[in-house]
Fold:
Amino acid sequence: MAADQTNSRLAWETLLELDGAGSRVAQLERAVRDAVRTGRAPAGAALPASRRLAEVLGVSRWVVTEVYGQLVAEGVLEARTGSATRVAAQVALPEVGRPARGPEAGGGPQLARRPRFDLAPGVPDLRHVPRDAWLRAAREALAVAAGDDLGGVPWGGHPRARAALAAHLRRARMVAAPDEAVVLTHGATRGMALVAAALAAAGHRHLLVEDPSWPVLREVARRAGLEPVPVPVDDDGVDADALAAAAARTGARAALLTPAHQFPTGSALAPERRQRVVAWARAVDGLVVEDDYDAEFRYDRRPVAALQRLAPQHVLLLGSLSKTLAPAFGTGWAVVPPRWRTPLERAARDVADGPSTVDQLTFARLLDGGAYDRHLRATRVRYRRRRDALVAALGRALPEARVRGLPAGLHLLLDLGAGAPDTAAVVRAAADREVAVADLRRYQARPAPRSGTLVLGYGNLADARVDEAVTRLAEAVSAAGR
Ligand SMILES: Cc1ncc(COP(=O)(O)O)c(C=O)c1O
Structure:
């Protein structure tokens, strides 16, 4: 690239002038954006190594890596393995504080830019996707793959990937299943589409769902011809009595639950309720779909074992890489009870493909070599710290509000407290301040007239932005109340 010759020796020290306003991270980020926007740092220009730039500017290396990470996540900079971080090609940067929207941002269709203060639930840390580890695993997996490995894949996935994943799930989630019970899917949502189609084909007409819950999976069920039947949840997870009553009323024999960490309320299914739910599934000869979406992340204890372990004949577990790596990997899994394997295979003909074999073999390598476990360990520490920082900042800025939900996963609930403005207005006022948050009502089967509760995700919130995000949120709360 021509930029290699022209720009590798740009005098960044003089280009990047810190203006002294706000935190070091904010200053450096503004300076890099400015250099890129004005063209002083053209596309392809290599940025200095973080250590060097930190020395030159007299800031900590953490400040530099935070800024590089943030701007890579936004597509302003590009990070390539074994090479310097560079200015990305064709970036059309908005003025700071005014996020780009739509095609005018850069010619041609664009992905929506994530908000600067990203408290939207459901998104993992897109700055710390283990790109290098994945690339290394891909290289190794392809290097040792036999010709036959690269031919057609049997239903359920490549046997090596199924075995590696089954071993991981037995160890990490205490799943009780042989290798052949594990099926690779294109994420949990498409896994759910398969399950819903198989249930409908077997004559099911209803699916018991938690209320509140993630609406996407309810919609997937509805499209397959299953009527979602909401069942209330409380601090102990789904109400087992209400579940049995709703089942008796509708004839439902299948349920979709998030036992490890209820989405979005953040409770865990209490031990006694776990027993009652599986007893119900056995009694009606039914199926519990266990959505294990963020169960790897528990910060106060080891993750609770999967419900699947209690009744492998009646619980089908769904998981994916969407929270542990990123949604872009399009890789998930189902642990399938024996009698549902053929129905699922039949449904798969019409409904969904699994991930590519190359991705499956890469994932298997990541698992077998220990890199996936290492990534999970590092990620747990990062999220736990960020959650602590967020909870502390909320306590300072919004003393009336109360945090709910286990120290787990990537989100928490915030009850704004008596006299707080309506959350719909708060969400709008927050958006005006570049803060994305969700109203609990968004997840309710029958949205309440008022909720007073926000769902805050901290997966993709930059550590350096926690305090400012909370300050802006507190401003939004007071602006919405005026
Ligand atoms: C509750 C819940 N279940 C499952 C998923 C995973 O979906 P997928 O693997 O299809 O990305 C998500 C992702 O946002 C989720 O929030």
